[in-house]
TrEMBL record:
EC number: 3.4.-.-
Pfam families: Abhydrolase_7
Protein name as it appears in the record: Alpha/beta hydrolase family protein
Gene3D superfamilies attached to this UniProt entry: alpha/beta hydrolase
Record key words, sorted: Hydrolase
Protein species of origin: Paenibacillus chartarius
Top-rank lineage group of the source organism: Bacteria
MF GO annotations: hydrolase activity
tRNA-binding is among the record's keywords: no
Enzyme class, broadest EC rank: hydrolase
Length: 360
């Protein structure tokens, strides 16, 4: 709470210290406490139900996907790229790139990785290596943001979607081609509006990814029984929540995201898409990650990543201690891995290839 203490002699009277006291004294009603597999399964069902309620996922309605081809195929170095779109809710469309590795034999199906993007990358463009805009090119260089391309070159079919509020899904006041506009998002406004209606933006993002999984069987070269999800920063947030709530995801890579909310969401300033009303009454991110057990989970973090909060990687390890208890009950601690790298906030990816090869 050091960052929330009122400085000696200050003329200001903020309310953050009061919020921090509330957060630190609140009981996690659905924090992980199981001591048996039957207890774990009961807890999993209860927490998943509560998360669906808090995010509005339990009120989402499916519609016809109506897949449409938009661009391509374009042959690139070692893979081809196409752009499609699907309808995730009535009149709500999600465009995405499909990256297909070269060398597929007739009738062959490859494992699939959904590569979710975060902020400051122009949406799906950076992940898919579409760097026609100078700002996106700079983001790829800074954050190693083209992990969709890295993954397809490892032999996976990769889907790179735009999340709501990003890329081609920006609302009208954020649309345009300037550096600032291309790199911006509408998620603060969208989450404010969603919260006022009893939803949370993360619920919409996860719904869209679940609909993308529903679409996968229509791709003749995609093995819909071997699905991984990966993401950096806000993409790591999406990967974490998707895998926690959807057992169809068999392996998960969370980069630059998993840490405790008290250090991060209260002491630091983050985008509104991270915030779910009343979440901290029930669970922290380590508890949400525990919902993924026993499926393989790789968490990577820079040892000086400011997005992990003032305690940096200690905050990450604290949450994974919670997660590890679920894996221990299954007797598969080896399926939970933490890769700490020297550096700040970026995608590292050094252990991803070997992790996914074994998991998928």
């Amino acid at each position: 709470m050091d960052g929330a203490v009122k400085p000696e002699g200050s003329a200001y009277y903020p309310m953050l210290p009061s919020l921090m006291r509330k957060a630190y004294t609140a009981d996690k009603r659905l924090g992980f406490q199981a001591d048996s597999l039957p207890g774990l399964e009961a807890w999993r069902g209860e927490l998943r139900s509560k998360l669906a309620e808090l995010t509005g996922l339990d009120r989402m309605k499916a519609c016809a996907l109506d897949p449409q081809h938009m661009e391509g195929p374009v042959q690139l170095d070692g893979y081809r790229r196409e752009k499609l779109r699907i309808q995730t809710e009535q009149d709500v469309w999600m465009p995405f790139y499909v990256l297909v590795p070269d060398g597929l034999k007739s009738g062959e199906k490859r494992p699939v990785v959904i590569a979710a993007h975060g902020h400051a990358g122009g949406g799906k463009e950076s992940v898919a290596g579409v760097v026609s805009h100078p700002a996106i090119h700079a983001a790829v260089d800074k954050y190693s943001y083209d992990y969709g391309v890295q993954l397809v070159r490892q032999g996976y079919v990769v889907l790179c979607p735009d999340a709501r509020g990003f890329g081609e899904r920006r609302e009208y006041w954020k649309q345009g081609d300037s550096d600032k506009q291309v790199m911006s998002s509408s998620c603060n406004h969208l989450n404010h509006a969603a919260i006022s209606m009893g939803y949370a933006l993360i619920g919409f993002l996860i719904w869209d990814l679940q609909r993308l999984i529903d679409f996968l069987p229509s791709l003749s070269y995609a093995d819909a029984d071997r699905i991984g999800c990966s993401g950096f920063s806000g993409g790591g947030m999406q990967a974490l929540w998707l895998a926690a709530l959807d057992d169809r995801v068999r392996a998960t890579v969370v980069s630059g995201y998993l840490s405790g909310y008290k250090d991060v969401l209260l002491l630091e300033t983050h985008c509104g898409c991270n915030y779910v009303p009343r979440l901290w009454e029930y669970a922290d991110y380590g508890d949400i990650a525990a919902l993924i057990a026993p499926r393989p989970l790789l968490v990577e973090s820079g040892d000086d990543d400011p997005n992990s909060g003032p305690r940096r990687v200690d905050n990450v390890r604290e949450q994974l201690d919670i997660t590890g208890k679920a894996y221990a009950l299954f007797g598969c601690e080896d399926r939970l891995a933490l890769a700490v790298h020297e550096g700040g906030h970026r995608w590292y990816g050094e252990r991803v290839a070997s992790f996914l090869k074994e998991a998928l």
